[in-house]
């Protein structure tokens, strides 16, 4: 709805997927299109919010009335989000953040024959962990009730463990207020216009299932749930 229930509310959204450079022409990346994050941004703005998006490698136009800050890597995204933590009333972490980055950036393009002593050898790329931006925000918030923090979990499920069970574990582990769980796979969610999600609440109130529906409808359901958590804690 455009009833203005977000009038004056400051919403910070991460969207897209980080890219971790290996050399000047290569990166480790992921399949996130940014569509769901941008849909949340567009709907929040339509509902009256002040909206800032930290956008990683998204090839979509900025939604009307939304401030977009472009970043590339997880470390850049973390710096941008942390700078706005005090500004935000609601944070929606829709971006797919690389868990690892190459330990070293190679200044010139890595050659196919990189070891003259062994022309057939393939390079071994060492990775290091990226920070968990979401977990860091939850820790920085401490005992405060603002901002309301919404995490996402893209799960494929595992033998014997459903997508929902994995989501519940992740919600407990991350400590965010809401977790938007969606099922992903080769033909699911990434780059598509429709989405199905479960929105789980940390406070034990019942979760909500939304979809299959457009990412705009899913965005409204996420914003409804975040509004309810926020009003409950104000
Ligand atoms: O653990 P997982 O990557 O599945 O968690 C997904 C959630 O955590 C998303 O909200 C994502 O934006 C966030 N995340 C993060 N920093 C990371 C990895 C994930 O903020 N390094």
TrEMBL record:
Q: Region annotation Phosphopantothenate--cysteine ligase: residue ranges?
A: 11-234
**Where do the annotations place CTP binding?**
99, 109, 131-134, 152, 170, 174
Q: Which reaction does it catalyse?
A: (R)-4'-phosphopantothenate + L-cysteine + CTP = N-[(R)-4-phosphopantothenoyl]-L-cysteine + CMP + diphosphate + H(+); N-[(R)-4-phosphopantothenoyl]-L-cysteine + H(+) = (R)-4'-phosphopantetheine + CO2
Question: Which is a Gene Ontology cellular component entry for this protein?
Answer: phosphopantothenoylcysteine decarboxylase complex
Keywords, A to Z, come to: Decarboxylase, Flavoprotein, FMN, Ligase, Lyase, Magnesium, Metal-binding, Multifunctional enzyme
GO biological process, alphabetically ordered:
coenzyme A biosynthetic process; pantothenate catabolic process
Q: In which pathway does it act?
A: Cofactor biosynthesis; coenzyme A biosynthesis; CoA from (R)-pantothenate: step 3/5; Cofactor biosynthesis; coenzyme A biosynthesis; CoA from (R)-pantothenate: step 2/5
Q: What is its EC number?
A: 4.1.1.36, 6.3.2.5
Look up keyword Endoplasmic reticulum and say if it applies: no
The record describes how the cofactor is bound as: Binds 1 FMN per subunit.
The Swiss-Prot or TrEMBL record lists the needed cofactor(s) as: FMN; Mg(2+)
The residues covered by the DNA/pantothenate metabolism flavoprotein C-terminal domain are 7-226
> What GO molecular function terms would the record report?
FMN binding; metal ion binding; phosphopantothenate--cysteine ligase activity; phosphopantothenoylcysteine decarboxylase activity
By sequence similarity, the record places it as follows:
In the C-terminal section; belongs to the PPC synthetase family. In the N-terminal section; belongs to the HFCD (homo-oligomeric flavin containing Cys decarboxylase) superfamily.
Give a short account of what the protein does: Catalyzes two steps in the biosynthesis of coenzyme A. In the first step cysteine is conjugated to 4'-phosphopantothenate to form 4-phosphopantothenoylcysteine, in the latter compound is decarboxylated to form 4'-phosphopantotheine. Catalyzes two sequential steps in the biosynthesis of coenzyme A. In the first step cysteine is conjugated to 4'-phosphopantothenate to form 4-phosphopantothenoylcysteine. In the second step the latter compound is decarboxylated to form 4'-phosphopantotheine.
Report what the protein is called: Coenzyme A biosynthesis bifunctional protein CoaBC
What is the native source organism of this protein?
A: Nostocoides jenkinsii Ben 74
């Amino acid at each position: 709805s455009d009833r203005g229930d977000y009038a004056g509310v400051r919403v910070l959204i991460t969207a897209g997927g980080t890219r971790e450079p290996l050399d000047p022409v290569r990166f480790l990346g992921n399949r996130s299109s940014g569509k769901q994050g941008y849909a949340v941004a567009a709907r929040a703005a339509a509902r009256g919010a002040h909206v800032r998006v930290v956008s990683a490698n998204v090839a979509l136009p900025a939604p009307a009335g939304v401030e977009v800050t472009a970043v590339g890597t997880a470390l850049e995204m973390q710096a941008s989000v942390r700078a706005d933590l005090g500004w935000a009333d609601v944070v929606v972490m829709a971006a797919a953040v690389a868990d690892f980055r190459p330990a070293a950036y190679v200044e010139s393009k890595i050659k196919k024959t990189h070891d003259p002593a062994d022309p057939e050898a393939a390079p071994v790329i060492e990775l290091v962990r990226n920070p968990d931006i979401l977990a860091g925000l939850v820790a920085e918030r401490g005992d405060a009730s603002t901002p309301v923090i919404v995490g996402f979990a893209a799960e494929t499920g595992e033998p014997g463990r459903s997508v929902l069970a994995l989501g519940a574990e992740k919600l407990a582990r991350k400590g965010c207020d809401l977790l938007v769980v969606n099922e992903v796979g080769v033909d699911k969610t990434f780059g598509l216009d429709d989405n199905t999600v479960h929105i789980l609440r940390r406070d034990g109130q019942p979760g909500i299932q939304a979809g299959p529906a457009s990412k705009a409808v899913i965005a409204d359901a996420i914003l409804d749930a975040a509004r309810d958590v926020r009003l409950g804690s104000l």
